[in-house]
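look at this record:
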Amino acid sequence: MSKKQMSLQSFFEKGQRPNDETTEDCSKTANKKKAAFKRKYQESYLNYGFIASGDSHSPNPLCIICGERLSNEAMKPSKLLRHMETKHPSLKDKPVEFFKRKKREHEGQKQLLKTTSSINASALRASFLVANRIAKSKKPFTIGEQLILPAAKDICREILGEAAVEKVAHVPLSASTVARRINEIAEDIETQLIERIKESPWYAIQVDESTDVDNKATMLVFVRYVFQEDVHEDMLCALFLPTNTTAAELFNSLNEYMSGKLNWSFCVGVCTDGAAAMTGRLSGFTTRVKEVASECESTHCVLHREMLASRKMSPELNNVLQAVIKIINHIKVHALNSRLFEQLCEEMDAEHTRLLLYTEVRWLSKGRSLSRVFELREPLQRFLSEKQSPLAAHFSVTEWVTKLAYLCDIFNLLNELNLSLQGRMRTVFKSADKVAAFKAKLELWGRRVNNNIFDMFPTLSELLKETEPEPSFTQLVHDHLYQLSNEFEHYFPSSKDPRIGKEWIRDPFVNKPGESTLSVLEEDQLLEIANDGGLKSMFETTSNLHTFWIKVKAEYPAIATKALKSLLPFPTSYLCEAGFSAVTATKTRLRSRLDISNTLRVSLSPITPRWDRLVAVKQAQGSH
């Protein structure tokens, strides 16, 4: 090889390109060195109008004049000066005090923005909390802006000062805002409720239908379910029926709501008021529910049955009741008569000054109206005599007054029974106990009346201290008690007592199951529970039956399942009745166009809304 060829080969070898591995290694080394070096901010950079921003380990220069943020690599006096000369040439000769003032203004604006953001977030949460209270109090939505916010400002002004007033003023409480907040709260509560019911192994419902002030038909549905080792009750939904209120319409409306949310097959009980549309044997609401819920049992509300059983009475007693109603209406219907009678009661130092109206749809009104008339019988006789009303003659007849005293006592006793059946978390066992005790009392009272003993009727007993009752009156009272006893037996037959064969649910350590009511597995598990000392101690310390059977379900699933399915169904439609009272309070003549479904859910549900989640999805903005 010649010298010229060797020199060319050497030249090409020295100038050859490196392979890929060498290139990659060099690139990584260069990037690592480059990434490791981060420029730091110097106080002298303020002379060029720049302050530090971002991460303290890798700060970025921020121009306090135009707000432009440069990269960390631009943290050099030459580049900062170039920005000043290019973008702000008129300010390059300004003294450092000018830039220090701009820095203080920037920091003040930053703090103001942070404070404002914090106030708006708190105001947003407060807006949700106040809207929740407005819904629970069943007040108009305008009360937030017209009363609550001005009152809160007055309180803050007098106690905390103007600074607190300015913060409170940021809370948005207009009527439209409150309406939106209530809708959002209701959606969150409904979501939580559906999730809870889905986690429950079974659930039971109670259903009732009524009309509101605008003659619109509303169906309320309440649900009872198992959640976190306890049983809970809540409003499932409020549905509006635009046209008919037939069994088909009722079921279709509820079925449409349930579709996609809950499974009918887990429904173990439905309680209704006993109306024909609800309990029809062939095509009633409960019949249709049972077609889709095979394990569901229907219950006729105990409260309604008690009221039906107390309706029948002899013509003689009914005439007294009708006369009392006429007396009440004669005074209450006319405003002038009401005022004059009130003044007369005050002059006679009567304990009460007004009569109470009687209405068929209110369970307790009969007993209370009769008692008030009896207590005011002297003012009533005088007032009616002055008005020359023939109704005044009733109070002069001893037999009529005696019958009135008896009606007062017997309906007051029926009212006591009715009140004892009302309330939340009632079970079929407690209701059956109360009814059975009253049936036994009726038989006992009948025997006492035959012996002319009326001590169980305090008003009548006090009246009869002066005179002996007529035999005809004694027979009248006895017959009425016997009739009441028969009616209670008709509506609460002993053969269908829900306690029969289920006393072991109330106390598995004492009571034994009835014959053939349990399977072999269930009976074996019940015997194991009955002989477990630890479970007996837990039973004695547990507050209610539901909780005990829920706790033993994991260990004894068969027998606990049977017990819970008997405890879950509602014995009454009390929650629906209370719900319609809330409808009456919420939807007045001045709010007849209001859609109260969401408002009802917020006002009646015991579930606490997830405030943090509600606030997080909203943009905090102050009121303006």
Remarks:
- Residues 503-567 form one domain.
- The two ends are 94 Å apart (CA to CA).
- The chain has four domains: 32-94, 109-300+590-624, 308-496, 503-567.
